Every structure is written in C-alpha cells, then in structure tokens.
Inverse folding.
C-alpha cells in the first residue's frame, strides 16, 4: 500500500519520522509531503533518508526551497497513486484548511484531490485544541468520515498539561492499518437511523423538548455509511452538519418522525431508534402565543405515538435496536423495553452522569440482547461506540439466524 505522510508544522513533527519508519516496517511505501512550517522543525533530508524518496515541499517547481520534484499536476498524480493520506501532526491550521477547502500549498491541494481514507493525528496547545473554531472544524472532518487518532493528554512542549499531545507513532500506524482494511460488512444493507429530540409545540413560539443533541444517532449513521450501508437518517431539530453520503430527513415533532420512519420502513433491513422522542404533546395547539398572567397554567398533555413499539410489531425479519435513556434502574428498564417493544437489542445509557449521555461527545452504554446476553461498553467517543454497537448487532444476527 502507498501511504502519503503529510507533516504539519509543530514540535511533534519529529514523531512523524518514527511514524514513517513504523509504516515502512509494515511494508508500506511512504511518500512524505511537508508544509513550509514543518521544515522549521525537521529537515526534509531526514524523511528522504528514511523512505528512499524525495520529499515534496512545494506546489510548483523552482520555488525557493523546493526539491524540484513537484509539478503543476503532481498533487493529482500523488493523490491518484496513493491508498491513504495521513497527516501527523495535524495542526489547527491544517485542519482549518481541510475543513474549509483552502488549498495554498502542496499538502492542502493534495487533500482536495484525494478520494481515499484520511487519517488525522492532531497535535497542538490545549487551548488551541479546545477552541470552538477547532472543535467545529474537527466535527466537519469527522462528518466526512476521516479517522481521528488522538490527541492524548499529558505534558506539552508549551509547559501546559492537558489534551494536545500527538498520539504515539505505533498507535497511528495501527489506525492506518485499520483504515486501509476498513470493514464493508454492511454493504447491501439499508440502515434507518433516528436521531435527536422532537419538539412538541405548546403554542406558536413554545415547545416541549429534551437535551438530546443527536450526536449518538449521527455517529451511528456515519458508522453505518462507512461500513457500506445505504443510510436514511431521520433527524429531529439539531445543530449538526449534514452527514456525507446519507439521506437526511428532517422532522420536528414525534408525529412527523413516525410518518418519516414508516415511509422508509419497507426499504430498511436494520432500524436503529436512537432519537429521544418526546413522550407527551399538546393535542390542541393554540393559534396564538399564550400570554403570561399571574394565574397558574395547567396543560393537559396526551401521549405521543410509540414509534418503537409500532416498528416492533411490523419489523418482520428486520433487526431493531432501541435506546433506553435512564437515570435509574438502567438494566431493568432496558430489559423491559427489549420485550415490550419487540427489539433485538436495547442500548441502555445513563443520562445523569457528567461527561456522557445527552450533549456529550462520549458515552458509556450497556447492550441488552434478545439472546439474554448483556454487554457493557466502557466510556468512549460516540463514533467509536457506534462501531461497537454494529459489531455486536452483526454477531447477534448470526446467532439469531443459527437459532432458526
């Protein structure tokens, strides 16, 4: 396999030399591309000696400091001939360029021309990593299906201690191997995912909702698409970028979500109900905004449609996954929902713990299967947990087929 190693300008650039060696030991061909800033930390000769290839440092031939290898179309040739692009360190500047499609040097231009898997190993100061702009760019790159490795927490070159250290070269090399041999075990499947909250109007300006951000459902949709599935994502109102390669159906209320799910049900082979659907709604919505008075306001609410139970009655041979967001009795409630709703799997998660569940980037869940098995999945990024959920779901399918 031919790997392009892009090296950004940061103190962690010296680790990129170790990464190049690790890739060569795995029998990969390595073509190194360095930004101008990267050359302030490590000389191109270091990588040329390691890889046996000239290092690309400039977009056009004849530029000061160029090695003469690059040509006006070289970025296209390198992109076409390579199997994977890894950027280590991926600086805040490079990730911003990638996210917004800027192309002012060889590496950023190559990125736009490259269509294969991309692995990014971020490295930067903790405050730069935590800045909202960096996090938005990071989310954009995740939505494109790029593989993020790190950063790790620890002492940084600036003297701070926190997240921002580039992952170790061996860790990045392992992630590259996984990306090069990405699973396509959902090819031929149509996966229907629901995500986010619903909003149930109380009047033209007010509504009942919950704290669901849609992050888990969107991660599940991205994971299914990356594994080869056709994906329909029915999403409540969330502030998230549209996932790449996914059919997105936007809804607002529980009734709209039910209608959208049933419209796509016949084509789905796997249904994952990750949405946090409101349990109650106001059947008769006033035509005008309710005015505040000194009197107590009482609202009579009716139950919303039970979408999961309805699918459970109609699912046939389809695999059905439900979610149980709980603050107590997680295992008991997950088991109850598994039976009552006709699910094959229920993903139980506590939503009263700091840093996991609603609105968080990480989650910690327990899978309850129709075979009676209970599988705890420890705290991890939601995108990683999404793959673990599909891993266990495919194992469950084999077990169910074998039992027939």
């Amino acid at each position: 396999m031919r790997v392009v190693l892009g090296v950004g300008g940061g103190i962690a650039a010296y680790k990129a030399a170790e990464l190049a060696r690790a890739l060569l030991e795995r029998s990969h061909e390595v073509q190194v591309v360095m930004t101008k800033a990267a050359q302030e930390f490590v000389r191109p000769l270091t990588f040329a000696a390691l890889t046996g290839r000239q290092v690309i440092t400039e977009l056009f031939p004849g530029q000061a400091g160029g090695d003469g290898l690059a040509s006006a179309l070289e970025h296209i040739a390198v992109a076409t001939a390579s199997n994977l692009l890894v950027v280590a360190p991926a600086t805040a500047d490079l990730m911003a360029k990638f996210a917004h499609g800027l192309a002012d040097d060889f590496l950023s231009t190559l990125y736009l021309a490259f269509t294969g898997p991309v692995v990014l190993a971020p490295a930067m100061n903790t405050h730069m990593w935590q800045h909202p702009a960096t996090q938005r760019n990071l989310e954009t790159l995740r939505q494109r299906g790029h593989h993020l490795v790190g950063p790790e927490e620890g002492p940084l070159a600036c003297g701070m201690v926190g997240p921002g250290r580039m992952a170790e070269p061996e860790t990045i090399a392992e992630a590259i191997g996984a990306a090069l041999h990405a699973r396509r075990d959902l090819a031929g499947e149509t996966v229907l995912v629901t995500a986010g909250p619903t909003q149930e109007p109380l009047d033209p300006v007010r509504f009942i909702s919950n704290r669901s951000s849609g992050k888990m459902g969107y991660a599940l949709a991205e994971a299914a698409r990356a594994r080869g599935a056709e994906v329909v994502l029915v999403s409540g109102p969330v502030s998230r970028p549209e996932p790449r390669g996914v059919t997105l159906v936007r809804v607002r209320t529980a009734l709209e979500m039910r209608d959208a799910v049933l419209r796509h049900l016949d084509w789905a082979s796997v249904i994952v109900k990750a949405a946090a659907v409101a349990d109650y709604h106001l059947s008769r919505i006033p035509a005008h905004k309710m005015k505040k008075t000194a009197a107590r306001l009482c609202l009579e609410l009716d139950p919303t449609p039970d979408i999961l139970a309805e699918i459970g009655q109609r699912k046939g041979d389809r695999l059905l996954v439900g979610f149980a967001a709980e603050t107590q009795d997680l295992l008991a409630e997950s088991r109850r929902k598994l039976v009552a709703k006709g699910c094959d799997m229920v993903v139980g998660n506590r939503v009263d713990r700091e840093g996991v569940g609603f609105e968080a980037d990480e989650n910690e869940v327990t899978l309850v299967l129709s075979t009676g098995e209970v599988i705890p999945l420890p705290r991890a990024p939601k995108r990683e947990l999404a793959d673990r959920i599909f891993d266990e779901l495919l194992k469950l399918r084999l077990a169910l087929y074998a039992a027939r």
